[in-house]
Amino acid sequence: xxxxxxxxxxxxxxxxxxxxxxxxxxxxxxxxxxxxxxxxxxxxxxxxxxxxxxxxxxxxxxxxxxxxxxxxxxxxxxxxxxxxxxxxxxxxxxxxxxxxxxxxxxxxxxxxxxxxxxxxxxxxxxxxxxxxxxxxxxxxxxxxxxxxxxxxxxxxxxxxxxxxxxxxxxxxxxxxxxxxxxxxxxxxxxxxxxxxxxxxxxxxxxxxxxxxxxxxxxxxxxxxxxxxxxxxxxxxxxxxxxxxxxxxxxxxxxxxxxxxxxxxxxxxxxxxxxxxxxxxxxxxxxxxxxxxxxxxxxxxxxxxxxxxxxxxxxxxxxxxxxxxxxxxxxxxxxxxxxxxxxxxxxxxxxxxxxxxxxxxxxxxxxxxxxxxxxxxxxxxxxxxxxxxxxxxxxxxxxxxxxxxxxxxxxxxx
Amino acid sequence: xxxxxxxxxxxxxxxxxxxxxxxxxxxxxxxxxxxxxxxxxxxxxxxxxxxxxxxxxxxxxxxxxxxxxxxxxxxxxxxxxxxxxxxxxxxxxxxxxxxxxxxxxxxxxxxxxxxxxxxxxxxxxxxxxxxxxxxxxxxxxxxxxxxxxxxxxxxxxxxxxxxxxxxxxxxxxxxxxxxxxxxxxxxxxxxxxxxxxxxxxxxxxxxxxxxxxxxxxxxxxxxxxxx
Lengths: 413, 227
Fold this sequence. Notes:
By secondary structure, chain A is mainly beta.
């Protein structure tokens, strides 16, 4: 029923996009704006099921949408909220979430405060990764913005201090964001799914903790050139249930895990000139945790980077290409260490994904786009920090290479 | 023969004028905006929604046109972007809750009307569009650090051949003003080239207030025949 309703809404969007526009009305004599977006994708892979979809048979279980309302209470003070929902293979499963909801007071251009649930600023696209219409690509480079791990860092409940500091005509503009708060992953997101589908299944009922970090970006005086750096620190705990595989007679017992260290470093640059945009980012994710109720340790080190270029050939046609490089190493200790050997050789297909991508985007009008994209992947990187390929979705094992065709259409107003 | 030649010259003049019209814009503001000038960096910050006040403290609200030559020219010249990229930039801010979508109207006439009625509104229109009820802001180049007051202004001569044919237009000049206030150099940076020489000749005679150092200032001179 819910699926039919969603499809009905998307069909309506697709047939009414020419008349779409943001809705505006007044509440207490203040202007309220309402905006929304939706997208539908189809993925076919030559081998291996990808992104928790049955993509080797062709899958359209790739839908998302969101809507927001915001109001400028005064020149400096604004409030707003956005609801987001998605169904990506076995993730999301149509459980809507409050994407962001906050109050924002901008005292000066160089000093503003936000409080509530806030999109987390990491790199070029972490806070806008759900909005496919902003990019030429149907999928952002998965080595840095993995679709299945979206919930991990997309927002935090807490506060931001931010601002833009002009450095003079020859110095450009320096923008900063410093934030702190709490992260809470949906149980329908990638990490809980990976544990549920593992050889020793764990059902997480909660996963999250404190999160704090900063982003600093410099719009250089050279026109169109931006460089930046982001850092995130996290202290997470997960709780749930599992059957200890070393003593299954115990039956289902409570489970906990806790990070000792968890951080992300990201470095990025962007150059845009006229119709050309070139992006490059490097993200390192490191996690060291106590797992299996303290009986084991698990640490993994993920290094992802990409370089992408997109060019607007015509007003309504853009093309682009990127190379995305994902490599992961992991080490287990304790009970898990006796079962899972360390992974240190990133040249093996199970420890990397090298993805070459070509893409085209057609803007049918101001509100509606269609994208066609080809992925040519070497490796399947199925380690403890998943990146699209899950053993549970590929019970017959993995093939080393995967080609994928991605079609995606989206509307926004 | 003489009539044919005159018609040919007239046609060429009209064509030149029309081409120039399509490639020039002026910045307009509501009369509540106290400033008469705006720097290029302020203009960029205001339209990229990073700043809501000008250097003199005047609160401003940007208004854009949805499409068209004025939009493309403004976005390229002052924001260093393409129109489509600007739209994506705005959407990125709106969908992360960082700002509201700025007002976007369909024609210059709508922009002028909106700016004239909305406190703090600032927009841009084609230089040939009527701008009744709004003030025109002079765009200061990046090098301008000091406010200059125009003390002595010589009006440019309106070429008779253009005047009788009711050919109107604007010329944008970049003036280099000495610390003492005299105009040291004049560079034509836009507008209708058939008015450029006479505009530059007049501007060389202008005198500004003194300042601690040399200043660059962009000015717009309008040629419109009187009643």
